Amino acid sequence: MRAAVFHGAHDIRIDEVPDPRIEKPTDAIVRITRTAICGSDLWFYRGQQDYAPGSRTGHEPMGVVEEVGPEVRHVRPGDLVLAPFAISDGTCEFCHNDLPTACTHGGFWAGMTDGAQGEAVRAPFADGTLVRVPERAHGNDALLDALFPLTDVMGTGHHAAVCAGVVPGSTALVIGDGAVGLCGVLAARRLGAERIIALGHHADRLEKARAFGATDVVDSHGDEAVETLLEMTRGGARHVLECVGSASSMQQAIQLVRPGGAIGYVGVPHGPAEEGLDIMSLFFKNATFRGGPAPVRAYMKTLMPDVLDGTLDPSPVFDMTVDLDGVPEGYAAMHDRKALKVLVKA
Amino acid sequence: MRAAVFHGAHDIRIDEVPDPRIEKPTDAIVRITRTAICGSDLWFYRGQQDYAPGSRTGHEPMGVVEEVGPEVRHVRPGDLVLAPFAISDGTCEFCHNDLPTACTHGGFWAGMTDGAQGEAVRAPFADGTLVRVPERAHGNDALLDALFPLTDVMGTGHHAAVCAGVVPGSTALVIGDGAVGLCGVLAARRLGAERIIALGHHADRLEKARAFGATDVVDSHGDEAVETLLEMTRGGARHVLECVGSASSMQQAIQLVRPGGAIGYVGVPHGPAEEGLDIMSLFFKNATFRGGPAPVRAYMKTLMPDVLDGTLDPSPVFDMTVDLDGVPEGYAAMHDRKALKVLVKA
User: Fold this and answer.
1) B279/A269 CB distance under 8 A
2) Which of A23, A339, B68, B73 could staple A320 via S-S, CB 3.0–4.6 A?
3) Which chain B residues are closer than 8 Å to A273 by Cβ?
């Protein structure tokens, strides 16, 4: 079969690779119908994160189950399924407590199996990892597009809002106008935020933020952004969704959170952000700092009904659609910021 | 009058200083009957924190109001009062929302007025800062000793427990066997924790932790402590009270918090801890990190009734009592770890 393979920075190719096969009794093979390119894929694409040449890429699959191992109970061949960016066994303490991203036996696609940008993939712990798409959505292309972001970005934006403690009536500040930030806007609106301020650098994305429910958008950088926002909020927002993960956006989140407020952070810390955090400012503000890899598998239970009834539709985060052969072009477009997020359809 | 003055590292003297006087209409003058030496005073004492020679020291006063400015409404001359380590105006958004340590006009004793290790002190924003001691406690020396830690350490230990999310039935891990850590044990017990593990390095203090309600004590360092505790908790505690503030104790807190759990941190970050935090581990654990200067003024409302009815008594944290002349000796004893916490009585 064919799949996207990382050959080096800025070099993704569609190669012939071995067909996936059941290796463990809890595995399933999924023929992929939709997958995507993630903002976090750009870190290795740009050479800013170690990634072994020859490795398969991608971690947001939707598809049809083709074959299951003898111990798989909850999905069957023919089922249309979604899978989150994290693999989880569905049986450990953390899976039972809605934190499958901390699964004792879990991991990530490229680490535990293969990447999901390909014709098919082996899904470990199929019962814990895969989620069936309800039949009413089958064949409804628009609804499937709306469900598909539950594999990653919509759940991640929701996690930012949950960690930031957004409740009805909140003022929420969303830092970042990428796909996760936009989903953070949607999530904050869904949770009842009264005022949602989106901070970003791209007029077209901020336009989308407005369509998603942002009441204010700020297109600004650095100190100027901080000054503008401190004035708009009269001293900071109680709920800050940090949806980037860079050192500067983390620092902005700390500068912009109101004393006693909370920062929900979901961008994988990268670059200098890995080295630390301005803990003194956080301390003197008594701000809560909470986040991590979103437990999107658990959030699917919460969010899927809203997508099915049409009240939640994150699909506009996709502004470019390619087939498998278009994946390399999709990476380049996202790297060049010509595309916000790329949908890959079989 | 006489007061403790910092002359340089390891050099605190009792000097003749000007009598305090009302400078602003919201000031009060308090004749000090009890004050204390704080673990955080040791940072400047040891030369590990900048502190201007000639500055007065101390920030935990209890005493009798001697004089008030014309705008003071809630305390009168003759009132016995407590004051928290932070000054607050009692009128701003944060004072109204139980976060007086973020008061818009507030600050700390040595910054806004004089230190509180002296015969008397000027208390700014007397209405917001001072709290009256109920009459039933007057003249009851043991009860006053038990109330006095509400000025700082007891409220700070309580903040660690609140920030760590301790609820009835919790397993709480308290890192640090100083006065704040011991008060953290008391607070966790008061909030209903079922299992309280105290981690420290001093057998006598851990004995005290046990008397305060610790169900387990661990006297261990570094990796060995981490291994022991991970085994005892089968993977970490959901509620970690970080009561030290050093880089190594912060790192231990991150290593020992269970995924999805919370770290309450109340030690002023110092040394390398100021430079950052291992954000990647925190991120991948989805742990909440929450803390700051404890709003002890607000917590007095919660904690004072329990002290008055005899169910909460943090006074055993004091194991040395001196008069004002004994303050230099008290600093030396705390620095040498011969004293846990020093009470200064007029």
Assistant:
1) yes
2) A339
3) 279
User: Does the distance separating the beta carbons of A101 and B286 come in below 8 Å?
Assistant: yes
Residue pLDDT, tens place only, A218-227: 998 888 999 9
Contact A290 B292 (CB under 8 A): no
Q: How many domains does chain A have?
A: 2
Same domain, A132 and A160: no
Of the three residues B291, B317, B332, the one that is the final residue of a domain is B291
pTM greater than the 0.90 cutoff = yes
Same domain flag for B160 and B250: yes
Residue B301 belongs to domain spanning? 2-152+295-345
CA distance B319 to B338: 9
In sequence order, which residues have a C-beta less than 8 Å from that of residue A139 and are 6 or more positions away? none
Cβ distance A134 to A150 under 8 Å? no
**Contact criterion met (CB < 8 Å) for A286 and B291:** yes
Size of interface A-B (CB pairs under 8 A): 95
3-state SS assignment for residue A124: coil
**Pairwise CB contact (< 8 Å): B285 & A265:** no
Q: Are residues A7 and A144 in the same domain?
A: yes
Residue A66 and residue A101 in one domain? yes
Query: SS3 of A51, please?
Result: coil
- For residue A274, the distance in angstroms to the closest alpha carbon of chain B comes to 6
Are A161 and A273 within one domain?
Answer: yes
In this structure, are A124 and A241 located in the same domain?
Answer: no
CA of B260, closest CA in chain A: separation in Å? 7
Summarize pLDDT for A4-41 with one digit per residue, the tens. 999 999 999 999 999 999 999 999 999 999 999 999 99
Contacts of B291 in chain A (CB under 8 A): 283, 286
* Beta carbons of A149 and A85 less than 8 angstroms apart: no
